[in-house]
Amino acid sequence: MSSALPRPHGTPERPAPRTTAIRTDLAFDHGAVSRFNAWFFSTFRGYLNHAARHHKQSAFGGIEADTVLEIGAGTGANLGYLRPGTRLYAVEPSLRMHRRLERACEAAGVEAVVLPTGAEAIPLPDAGVDEVICSLVLCTVDDPGKVLAEIRRVLRPGGRFRFVEHVAAPGRGVRYAVQRFIRRPWGYVFEGCDPGRHTLEAVARAGFSEVRTERRKLRDSLFWPVNTAVWGVAVR
Ligand SMILES: C[S@@+](CC[C@H](N)C(=O)[O-])C[C@H]1O[C@@H](n2cnc3c(N)ncnc32)[C@H](O)[C@@H]1O
Predict the structure, then answer these.
(1) Ligand 1 centroid to 34 CA: how many Å?
(2) Angle 32-43/98-108 helices, nearest 10 degrees?
(3) Considering only the top CATH level, what class is 24-235?
(4) Strand partners, 235
(5) How far is the CA of 191 from the centre of ligand 1 (A)?
(6) What angle do CA 94, 53, 203 make, to 5 degrees?
(7) Helix boundaries (H) for 20-133
(8) Domain parsing of the chain, residue ranges
(9) Ligand 1: distance of its center to the CA of 72 in Å?
(10) What is the signed CA dihedral for 203, 207, 211, 217, rounded to 10 degrees?
(11) Quick one: which of 87, 83, 82 has its CA closest to 67?
(12) Ligand 1 centre from 176 Cα, in Å?
């Protein structure tokens, strides 16, 4: 493993964990819809990152770990928050995302291990990683409780789970009604994404020792139904 930057004082290097058996049955390829999603998240990466810049800087700023696990890495939206030389375990079940993700990792100088599976069964041992990150993923997985339990399992004690997600609009107002109304077509186009999920409540139930979060609308985003967003850092 290489690291282009000096190690921060006092952080001993830990060997990267070995991957365990991969549940490839959790990987998917929905043909045209998966191709569309790979194109969409690659094409709009700059725009979405700009709209979520406050959230991402707050959640992902200052990651120093040599090894990072990303859940639902997509086409590499968060690589700018990793130091060149980082080893990234990228759990990504959509096979259509992989080529773009690998190319983006190469361009960013990040050593990627792309894992073609879902986060319901992360192929890493218990307590092996310091940092887990994800953006716009807990809205999409079938069972957020199960995924959060897996994230907690692979984090070492004191390790951090950093996330940026869109969530259900507070209260029962117009935006929440729209989120409910468009759920099926939106979920079809974005491969399972629920525009109005109560993600913070799921994180709060997941057994982390400490959770810091902020609800804040995305600014400058055209995607009005999912502008109600949060960032958070949860400590195992
Ligand atoms: C809305 S996209 C976000 C992609 C990327 N994180 C970003 O911010 O651009 C949701 C991502 O979650 C992935 N995903 C879907 N189900 C998943 C699961 N069970 N486990 C892990 N990732 C999943 C999708 O394949 C997709 O890459």
Answers:
(1) 11
(2) 20
(3) alpha beta
(4) 160, 210
(5) 9
(6) 60
(7) 32-43, 45-51, 53-60, 98-108
(8) 24-235
(9) 4
(10) 0
(11) 87
(12) 22
- What pTM value is reported for the model? 0.94
Place of tokens 């997509």: 74
pLDDT the model gives residue 99: 98
Residues 6 or more apart whose CB falls under 8 angstroms from that of 227 comprise 166, 175, 217, 218, 221
Predicted local distance difference test score (pLDDT) of residue 219: 83
Give, for all 236 residues of the chain, the pLDDT tens digit.
333 444 444 455 678 899 999 999 999 999 999 999 999 999 999 999 999 999 999 999 999 999 999 999 999 999 999 999 999 999 999 999 999 999 999 999 999 999 999 999 999 999 999 999 999 999 999 999 999 999 999 999 999 999 999 999 998 899 999 999 999 999 999 999 999 999 999 999 999 999 999 999 998 788 899 999 999 999 99
Is residue 158 within 8 Å of residue 235, measured between CB atoms? yes
**What amino acid is encoded at 75 in this protein?**
T
Atom of ligand 1 nearest to the CA of 91: 21
End-to-end, the C-alpha distance of the chain in Å comes to 25
Residues within a 6 A CB radius of ligand 1: 41, 71-74, 77, 91-94, 97, 118-120, 135-137, 140-141, 190, 193
CB 72 within 8 A of CB 41: no
Cα-to-chain-centroid distance, residue 170 = 22
Q: What is the sign of the dihedral through the CA atoms of 108, 1, 69 and 33? A: positive
